Amino acid sequence: MAMFIVNIAQADHTIRTGELMLPPGSIQTSLGDCMRLFGTPIEIRAFNVPLPVAHTARALGKRYPALSHMALYRRRVLLSGYVADQFWVLSLDSAGPRATYGTLSILKETGSVRGSGVSGNVGCLQGNASPLRRWLPAGARLRLQFEKDEQDGHVTQQIWTSAVPVASAWAVLRMALQQAQWQAEAVTSVGDRWRRAHCLLHVTIVPVEGGSGILLQQHDGASS
């Protein structure tokens, strides 16, 4: 994966979230602006440009002189940096010899989660760094936490890794959930589904480097 680092903080004009200026004929759309990554508000936009990746990167560099760092890979360019006091990660991928598919992730670091307007839903995973940590095998490490507000509730996805094998991880987690008053709705070799009040939890555990990879997806506000 490649990265192109875009620092617009010193550009000639202020860039706002919906104003990524792309070459003529481009299409862009928002994939959501009520999301959080490790608690930080994030907006994600996707776009298509009718130019090769190299031409797209050149056009964006010309339009935004503050673009300062570029990392090149075989078929991808990734950019990241501060733009108007927000941290941007811009990914450009080849969609053929004359087309580029890209995504722009905007981390709204200058605003707090409480002040962002998206923290009103107090879910089962909220209130500290991760209440589920105490239900996982000792030494489990949180690799990714992604959150999104939806019309019917709040969704949190976490990816953890643990040094213990899959069978041991399942045993620890299932016992801990039962003790915490979660009810098993489905327990299979592929994954579990648990419920507590209006919280629905999907669990998947797979072998990773001799240990376990644990995927937790919780829907806070899920109907019965």
Descriptive notes:
By secondary structure, the protein is mainly β. It has two domains: 4-107, no CATH class; 122-220, TATA-Binding Protein (2-Layer Sandwich), CATH 3.30.310.80. The protein is built from two helices and 13 strands. The chain has a 13-stranded antiparallel β-sheet, with helices on one face. The longest helix has 14 residues, at 166-179. The model is unreliable at 1-18 and 110-129 (pLDDT under 50).
State the main characteristics.
TATA-Binding Protein, 11% helix, mainly beta, 2 domains, 224 residues
- Label the structural class: mainly beta
The end-to-end span amounts to 40 Å
Tally the structural domains: 2
> C-alpha Rg, in Å?
21 Å
The helicity comes to 10-25%
The largest sheet is: 13 strands, antiparallel
Return residue spans where pLDDT drops below 50 for at least 5 consecutive residues. 1-18, 110-129
Gist of the model:
The chain has 224 residues and is mainly beta. It contains two helices and 13 strands; from the N terminus they run E-E-E-H-E-E-E-E-E-E-H-E-E-E-E.
Write the layout of secondary structure elements.
Blueprint (H helix, E strand, L loop, with lengths): L3 E3 L20 E11 L2 E10 L3 H11 L3 E6 L3 E8 L2 E9 L5 E8 L33 E10 L2 E10 L3 H14 L3 E5 L4 E5 L2 E10 L2 E10 L4
Antiparallel strand pairs: 1-4, 2-3, 2-8, 3-7, 4-5, 5-6, 6-7, 8-9, 9-13, 10-11, 11-12, 12-13
